[in-house]
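We both want to read discrete structure tokens more fluently, so let's practise on a single case. Would you write everything just below, so we can both look at the same thing?
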Amino acid sequence: MYLVRRVYKVKPGTYRKAAELLTQIAKKYEDAGQRTQSRIYWSGGTVPGPKDTVYMDWAEEQLRSPYRTGNIIPNFGDLTTQLREIQEESHIEFYEMFSPK
């Protein structure tokens, strides 16, 4: 099992808007059966951590390319465009989860 985390550095003061957009994007992936339930959270402001940074993570049984044959990417309308307008940078992180036997 893997934990996949997308990290978004957003323009000052836009972390809440980014979290709202990411919540809607995550829901579209979930409704399409392509992801497990996502968690959306941020750091900075009232909690320690890098300011104006929003995170989205979810668990995956295996790591697969979104461009794999047969995969249909959900229609996000203008959600991704709105996110890009407030996003300064982003990256993705992958973690293998410990499973005691």
Summary: The chain is about 25% helix and 30% strand. The beta strands are 2-10, 39-43, 53-60, 87-96. Residues 15-31 form the longest helix (17 residues).
